[in-house]
Amino acid sequence: MLDAFLEHLGPTLSLSILAQVISIIFAIPIGIIAARKRGSKTDQFFMALVMLGMAVPSFLLGLLLMQLFGVKLKWFPVAGYEPLSAGFWNHLRYMIMPALA
Fold first, then answer.
1. How many other CB atoms sit within 10 Å of the CB of residue 95?
2. Which terminus of the chain is more exposed, N or C, with fewer CB under 10 A?
């Protein structure tokens, strides 16, 4: 049981760190812009975007991301995992869609 835990610890940490980095990169600038333009159309747009993001279940967002970026555009793989030892960019390609979802 400990072996299974340790086997999945690396991908889990990698995914959680990437998700936090993405949220910080997007959330802080959007929050600053919305705060500076309080009550404007920009603020309302970002508020609607945040509400939509909170309302859409993560599994549905994941499926939509897979359909658009994996199947239609073929930018990212839709399944699998590449460890960090296989190269940073390969690792990032496999982790970006789950981190966004």
1. 20
2. N
Tens of pLDDT, residue by residue over 52-81, are 888 999 889 889 989 999 999 999 998 888
Give the whole-angstrom CA distance, residue 47 versus residue 54: 11
Cβ distance 58 to 50 under 8 Å?
Answer: no
Burial 8-20, CB ≥16 within 10 A → b, else e: eeebeebeeebbe
Kindly tell me the burial class for residue 101, based on how many C-beta atoms sit within 10 Å of its own C-beta (0-12, 13-18, 19 or more): middle
Q: How many CB atoms lie within 10 A of CB 84?
A: 13
Burial (CB < 10 A; 0-12, 13-18, 19+), residue 94, is buried
Distance CA 19, CA 96 (A): 8
